[in-house]
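Give me the fold.
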Amino acid sequence: MFKSLILAATLVVSAAAQAHNTLAEAIFASQQAQIQSSVVATGLDWRVGQENNYKLNMGGFLNGTMKMYVREIIADGIWMVQDIDLSIQKQKVEVLIDPANGKIKKMLVNGKEQEPPKSDMEIVDQKEDKVTVPAGTFEVIYLKIKDNANNGQISEQWINPRDIPLSGMAQSKADSQLGKVTIQLTSFKK
C-alpha cells in the first residue's frame, strides 16, 4: 500500500504555490497535494459525514482548531469545508472538488469566491514513517515539499489516506510569517 502511495505522491505534486490572503487559504493549499495524491492512489471515496479535527499552533504561541468535513456530494463534485478557529481569527473555506482528479472547481473563503491556489510544488524527500499525534499513532508517508513559487519554502506532511479520511493528513508543519505552523489530527469520523 505504501509503495503505491509513494508513487502517487511522486506523480501528483500539486499544492498551493502563491502568497495567500488568509491562514485558511494557506492551510487548505498545503493539503491539495494530499487530496490529489489520494485520488491517484485510492480514488476519492469521500462520503457526507466524514470529518477530521485538528489542533493548530502558529509560531509556538497562537493555538486554535480546524474541522474539515464533507458537507455534500452533488453532480458537479464534492463540497469539502474547513472551519478554522484561532483566537484572533475565524474562517470558513468551502471547496468544490472534482472526484475524478482531485482538482478544485470552486473555492469560497468566508462566503466570497476566490481563485483556487496555483500549484508549483516539488517533493524533495519521501519515505515510510510513523507519527504519533493526539488521535493516535499512524503508519504514514512522510513528504518534504518545496514551494517553488513561494521562495522555496519547505513544508512537511505526514499522510495516511488509507486510515484517515479526506486528505489523509495526520500532521503538517510549514513555515509562515509568524513562525512554524503545526497541524495535528485530534480525531476523525470515517
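Helices lie at 2-11, 23-42.
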